[in-house]
UniProtKB/TrEMBL annotation:
Pfam families noted in UniProt: Peptidase_M14
GO BP: proteolysis
Protein name: Peptidase M14
Entry-linked SUPFAM superfamilies: Zn-dependent exopeptidases
PANTHER family referenced in this protein's UniProt entry, alphabetically: CYTOSOLIC CARBOXYPEPTIDASE, CYTOSOLIC CARBOXYPEPTIDASE 1
Co-factor requirement: Zn(2+)
Domain Peptidase M14: 162-418
A GO molecular-function descriptor: zinc ion binding
UniProt family annotation: Belongs to the peptidase M14 family.
Length: 418
C-alpha cells in the first residue's frame, strides 16, 4: 500500500470512529437530559376533565407556579367575549405549596373592554367536591388573579362561584317530584338537545302567578341555589306555605343555558347567543331554542288566561341590584310595584343593594322584553357573587338557599291588596 492509499484509509477510519463517538456522546447526553427532566417534572396536575370544568390551557412556569389561561366565551357575530367562570381541580401531594395565576379576564362588552374580576373577587375551594368555603384572591397587575395554598390532601377543587351542575339539577328534580305540590313539564330542548323544564309549585288556579328563570348565563349558579331554597320552602306544606300558595302559583325555568353549564362556559349558549338579550323580538328556533321554547310556553300560558303577574330573571354580578325595566310608555304602576318589591326584599331578606336608578336602561333583557311584548311586569335580579353587604360576607350556596327560603313571604306580601 502506497502512502496516499494508507492516508486515505486512515482518514476514513478516523472519521468513522469519531462519528460513532459523536453519536454515542449525543445519545448519552439525550439520555441524561431525559433523566434530568424526569427528576424536575412537576408534581402538580390541573384536571379539567369533569362536569362543568372550565376550558383552559395551563403550564408550570420557571418559578413553579401554575399559569392558567382561561378560554374566552365568544358571542355570535360580535366582538363581545366573556370569561368569568373558572372551575378546575388541582392534584398534588399533601403539603405541596401551590400558586395559581388565572389570566384572560380581558372581556369585551359592547365593543368596550370590561372585566369580571377586581380586588374584591373571592374564590371558593373544596377538598371533597362537596363542602365549599370562600377565600380572598389576590388581584395582580395585568388583570390576573393569584391563589396560594398548601395542599392538605391530594385534591383541591377551585371555582369562582360555588358550582351547580346539571347533575345537581337532575337530583333536585327527582327529589321534588315526590311532592304533590310539584309538577315538572318539558317544554323543549337546548341547542345540543338537552331538556328544558318548567317547574310548577302550587295550584295553577291560584289568583296570582309568578315566573322565575335561572341560569341564562352559564356561570351564574347563584340563581339555581336560590331556586332550590324557594322550592324547598314552598313544598314544606306547613301552615305558612299553605297560606302562601293560596295566593299564588310559581313557575320556574331552572336552568336555561344547560349547554353552557355542561361545557363550563361563562355567558353564551352553544351558538354564541346571549339568552338575556334580544328579547325585543322573537327568538330564532335554531340559534336560540332556549328562548324560543320559553316564548312558546309563555304564549300558551297567556292564551289560557294564566299570564304571570310578576317575572324575575335571576343572575349573578358584582353589584347585586334589582334591574328595573324602563321601556317607553306609561310605566308608573309598574315602577310603583317595583318600589314595593324592593321594600319587601329589604324587609324579609338580607337584600340591601337596591335598584337601578331612573337613567338606567338595559334594552333587550328578559325584564324589558316581557314588559314590551307580553305585558308582564318583570325585572332582572342580580345576586352579588363577590360580597353580600346584608350578610357581611362573600356568598356561598347556603346563603342563596336561605334567600330563596325568604322569597315566599316577599311574594305573598307583594300581591297583598294595597
Amino acid at each position: 500500500m502506497n502512502s496516499n492509499a494508507f492516508l486515505r484509509t486512515f482518514l476514513v477510519l478516523f472519521i468513522s470512529i469519531n462519528f460513532g463517538y459523536s453519536k454515542a456522546v449525543k445519545a448519552c447526553t439525550a439520555e441524561q437530559n431525559l433523566k434530568t427532566d424526569s427528576l424536575v417534572a412537576p408534581k402538580v396536575f390541573v384536571n379539567t376533565g369533569f362536569e362543568n370544568a372550565s376550558p383552559m390551557n395551563w403550564e408550570i412556569d420557571s418559578a413553579g407556579r401554575i399559569i392558567a389561561s382561561l378560554v374566552y366565551d365568544h358571542e355570535r357575530f360580535s366582538q363581545n367575549r366573556a370569561n368569568g367562570h373558572w372551575h378546575f381541580k388541582v392534584e398534588a401531594p399533601a403539603g405541596t405549596d401551590v400558586t395559581i395565576i388565572l389570566q384572560n379576564f380581558d372581556n369585551i362588552w359592547n365593543n368596550t373592554h370590561a372585566s369580571q374580576v377586581s380586588k374584591h373577587t373571592p374564590y371558593v375551594i373544596s377538598f371533597d367536591n362537596k363542602t365549599w368555603e370562600s377565600r380572598p384572591a389576590e388581584l395582580l397587575p395585568g388583570n390576573r388573579l393569584q391563589i396560594r395554598l398548601k395542599m392538605t390532601g391530594p385534591n383541591a377543587y377551585f371555582a369562582g362561584v360555588e358550582p351547580y351542575r346539571i347533575s345537581d339539577l337532575a337530583k333536585f328534580l327527582t327529589d321534588i317530584k315526590t311532592s304533590k305540590l310539584v309538577a315538572v313539564t318539558q317544554i323543549g330542548k337546548t341547542s345540543e338537545g338537552r331538556s328544558l323544564e318548567i317547574i310548577r309549585i302550587g295550584n295553577e288556579k291560584a289568583p296570582k302567578r309568578i315566573f322565575l328563570r335561572a341560569r341564562a348565563h352559564a356561570f351564574e349558579s347563584g340563581g339555581n341555589w336560590t331556586v332550590e331554597g324557594l322550592v324547598q320552602r314552598l313544598i314544606q306544606n306547613d301552615e305558612q306555605s299553605k297560606t302562601w300558595l293560596k295566593r299564588y302559583c310559581v313557575y320556574i325555568l331552572p336552568m336555561a343555558n344547560k349547554d353552557g353549564v355542561a361545557r363550563g362556559k361563562t355567558r353564551f349558549n352553544s351558538n354564541g347567543y346571549d339568552l338575556n338579550r334580544k328579547w325585543d323580538k322573537e327568538a330564532d328556533s335554531l340559534i336560540a331554542p332556549e328562548n324560543y321554547y320559553l316564548e312558546k310556553w309563555m304564549r300558551r300560558m297567556i292564551a289560557e288566561n294564566r299570564k304571570p303577574d310578576l317575572g324575575l330573571d335571576l343572575h349573578n354580578d358584582a353589584g347585586g341590584n334589582l334591574h328595573i325595566s324602563r321601556p317607553d310608555g306609561d310605566i308608573r304602576a309598574y315602577l310603583a310595584n317595583m318600589e314595593k318589591l324592593e321594600m319587601l326584599l329589604r324587609k324579609h331578606t338580607w337584600f340591601t343593594e337596591g335598584s337601578t336608578r331612573p337613567g338606567f336602561r338595559n334594552p333587550g333583557t328578559l325584564g324589558e322584553g316581557f314588559m314590551e311584548r307580553f305585558g308582564i311586569e318583570a325585572a332582572v335580579y342580580e345576586l352579588n357573587y363577590e360580597w353580600v353587604e346584608g350578610l357581611k360576607k362573600a356568598p356561598l350556596a347556603a346563603d342563596w338557599i336561605s334567600l330563596g327560603g325568604m322569597l315566599p313571604k316577599v311574594f305573598y306580601d307583594y300581591f297583598e291588596n294595597p
